[in-house]
Structures are given as C-alpha cells and as structure tokens.
Amino acid sequence: MSRYLFMFIGVIPLFLILKKVKKNLFSEEKSIFWMLGGICIFILSIFPKLIDKLSALLGIAHPPSLLFLLTSLFILYIIFRQDQDISLLNERVKELGQRNAILEQKINTLTENREYDTENTLNES
Amino acid sequence: MKKTLIVIPVYNEEVNIEKVIREIRQEIDFADILVIDDCSTDGTLKKIKSLDINFLSLPFNLGYSGVLQTGFKYAVENNYEYVVQFDGDGQHIAAEVKKLNAASINENADIVIGSRFKDKKGYPYPYPLFRRIGSTIFKMLIKNICNTKITDPTSGFQMLKRNVFGRYARMYNYPQYPDANLIIEMLLNKYKIVEVPVAMRKRETGISMHGGFIKPVKYMVKMFYSIVLIIIKYKLSIKTKKRRRKK
Hints:
The complex is a heterodimer.
Chain A: H1 2-22, H2 28-46, H3 49-58, H4 63-124
Chain B: E1 4-10, H1 17-27, E2 31-37, H2 44-50, E3 55-57, H3 63-77, E4 82-85, H4 97-106, E5 111-115, H5 129-146, E6 158-161, H6 162-170, H7 180-188, E7 193-197, H8 214-246
Helix pairs in contact in B: 3-6, 5-7, 7-8
C-alpha cells in the first residue's frame, strides 16, 4: 500500500512542473533539474530496492542515509545555481538602474532645451 | 562643456549638499558638477532640483560604489577627460580639487589620490583606532603586493583619468567598497597612481557608512576577500598571456 502512496508522491512534482512549464510560468531550462529530480523520486518509489542495492555497492551501511545524501546534494546544487542567478540578476538590475538614471537626465535636458527653443521661436514670431 | 566632471554621490544629505555645491562653484571653474542621488529617503532630491544643477536620480538604492559607477558611465557617455570623486557630506574641501588637478596634469598620473595622511597637518582630528589599524594593514598589503607606498588607501577623494574611469564603468562587479582592492588591481595593471597631501574636514552631520561595530568587520572581511580574488585573477591573466605568447 505504501508503495502506491510513494508512487503518487513521486508523480505530483512531475505534473506540477509540466503544468507550470505549459503555462510559461517556469522556464524550460530551469525546470530540467526539477524534472530529473521528480523522475528519480518516481523511479525510486516504484523500485525502492534500488536504494538498498546502490548503498551496498557504495558501501553505505544505512541505505536511507544515501537517500538523504543525494537529496542534500541535489538541493545544494540547486541553491548554488540560484545564488549564481541572483548575483547575475543583481548586476543586471544595477546596470538597468544606472542606464535609466542617465537616460532620464538626457530626456530632461532635451525637453528643457526644446521648451526653451519653442519659447524663443514664439517670442520671435 | 568642460573636460573635468566632479561626481558627487549623495544619500540623505539634505543638510550638507547645498553648502558643498556652493563651495565647489565658488572654488572650481574648470569642472562640471554632477550630483547623483542614491534614492534618498529625505528631501535630498527636492533640494538638488531646487539648486539648478546637473543631477541624476537613481530609481533604487545602489550604495556608494554603484552610484560612483553611474557617474563613471555618465562621464564616458559625455566624453569627459577626468572625473573627480567628491563626497556629498562636506568632508572634502573644494579648493583641494585644484591640487589633484595639478598633480594629474604635471605628473601624468592615471589616478590621483587625495591623502589625509601624507602631510601630518592634513587631518588633525582623532582617527578611530579600529580604522587606523585597518588602514595600516591595507597600507602594508599594498606595499607588499605592489611595492608602492600609499598613505591613505581608503580615501574617496580621487581624480581619475579617462582610461581609468572608463575601465571602472565597464567593470562587471565593480566592488562594493572601492578602496585598497581597486588600488591593488590598478597598480598590478600598471596604472600610475600618485598621492597628493590634502586637508579634509571632519564629518559634521549625518551618519558615516562605516559606523558601528559589525559594519567595519564586514568591511574588513569583504576587502580581504576582494584582494585575494584580485591577486588570483591577476596571476591567472599572466598565465594566459604567457601561454598565448608561446603559441
């Protein structure tokens, strides 16, 4: 019975990711890792014995710790990528703010000059 | 348009800014002034607008270095030859810009630093112990790494030539605290840095950006990290250059 429960839990993330990607709320590129993670969970829920075999192969006495190890590595990797993305985004936002300020000043001087010019031409005529 | 641009980053300097600008206008006739408001929360922007002066207003707070970089970008776009970094809190003395300018022209320096400590009379105020220790450490680091004596590595009163601020403007990850780390980077890359003794005032009102206890510690850690990264990058760049030459 628990096996079906785990299979169900394994399927949920897959559907969630697919739904978000379909609605363009989640980029294809970023969803790959979550999709891979979801597939792993799904496979493990169908064949739970895989973990036992893998840990025996790696010489890990307590199989669930392998599971925890893999999960933490997966999460660490995703956080690392996210931090990387955030710092990139920060830099880009800064760049945009700077450009925005410079352009705003340019527009201000241009409109001022134009107003000045039109006033002058009105006075002349 | 003049050849030199004085960039004044301001953040919540409602009280000081008018005096600072009046002083510059009185003393300096060879430079344009650009005030950059770092999204102040008090009436600074209103004050600047009332002063009839060239200004930029950032849409969100970028911090001191982000504001400076904005000034460099502006200077590049408007083809200035020199940029003077000038604090908006009234610590820097406008007449001293002339000294920087003279040194920049006479000695053909890429960066001229206005040093408080080159001449003992420059800063007759008590300098906090913690900062003195930090300053000494950075002086020693610069001396050891670049074999150059810089007496005031944390001075924000600098005059930069076009090749320098152009580089800063393009720099990805322009450091949060552009002090000893940038000096080391520029020295390693064979830019000529000259120091000129200048006088500075004590801060009158407002809060320093290095106040408290945690901030200086953070500053030190970040500065060391930044310097280590700069050295690693420099070593790597030398290696790639050598490899290219071999090919």
